[in-house]
Amino acid sequence: MEKPLGKRTKSSPSGQDIADWLRERIRKGRFVPGQRLVEIDIIESTGGSRAKVREAFQRLEAERLVVIEEFRGASVRKASMREIREIYRLRVALEGQCAADFASDGTAKDKARLRELQRELDACVNDNASERFARLNGEWHDHVIKGAKNRLIRDVLARLTVPINRLLFESFYDTRWLRKANIDHQGITHAILAGDSAKAGALMRRHIEDGEKTLSTIASEFSE
Q1: What is the pLDDT along the chain (224 residues), one digit of tens a residue?
Q2: Which UniProt keywords apply (predicted)?
Q3: Are the CB atoms for 134 and 103 separated by under 8 Å?
């Protein structure tokens, strides 16, 4: 069983610590859209106080990840189709810029790791390993963002993509989309490794735009 946050450090977890803990679980789909967040369960899981758990809820409400209702408490917020489209418009711009910057300014070490990730993604497609592909897809995108060395964009995208992570995961159970996504990854990876900034940025923007179209076809099950 996972140790509560408070037992991992000498001090009790702060509201920010608990917010980070909750955000990561929302990102990974452990807490799903519409699910009620029970205070006592979170207190037991984190070792935090009731006041700090409520502070965490308020932080996540400000990030539009949680809804707090009188007499009902907090629950994971559902993303509307309009919000999903807005998130994708921002991703097009920001991740496109990251791919371009990674191609022109990325380190040899980071590019070598990107090559390794691409090989792992290719193996997932060959094995039709949807769940592993979904996890590696997130790691691949995170690595491209990291490779751009822009902390501000990285922080924005880390919060921006949380509401759509479960939708992304679901999309990879469609073999056609999985293969199409990986063909896109291969092209972007090749452009980054070749140092072709313009091509890497353009291919990433198109990849994100295609992803928005795919998610639109399955979002109704999870959106408001």
Answers
A1: 455 675 555 578 999 999 999 988 887 778 888 899 999 999 999 999 999 999 999 999 888 888 999 888 999 888 777 888 888 899 999 999 999 999 999 999 999 999 999 999 999 999 988 888 988 998 999 999 999 999 999 999 987 777 676 666 666 667 888 899 999 999 999 999 999 999 999 999 999 999 888 777 665 544 44
A2: DNA-binding, Transcription, Transcription regulation
A3: no
Pairing of strands 66-69, 73-76: antiparallel
Would 5-76 and 81-221 be classified into the same CATH topology?
no
3-state secondary structure of 203: helix
**Spans of all domains in the chain:** 5-76, 81-221
- First-to-last alpha carbon distance for the chain, in angstroms, is 34
Output the six-digit token pair for 67: 């809804």
Classify domain 81-221 at the CATH class level: mainly alpha
CATH 1.10.10.10 fits 5-76, yes or no: yes
DSSP 107-170: -HHHHHHHHHHHHHHHHHHHHT-HHHHHHHHHHHHHHHHHHTT-HHHHHHHHHHTGGGHHHHHH
> Measured between alpha carbons, how far is 114 from 25 in angstroms, rounded to an integer?
25
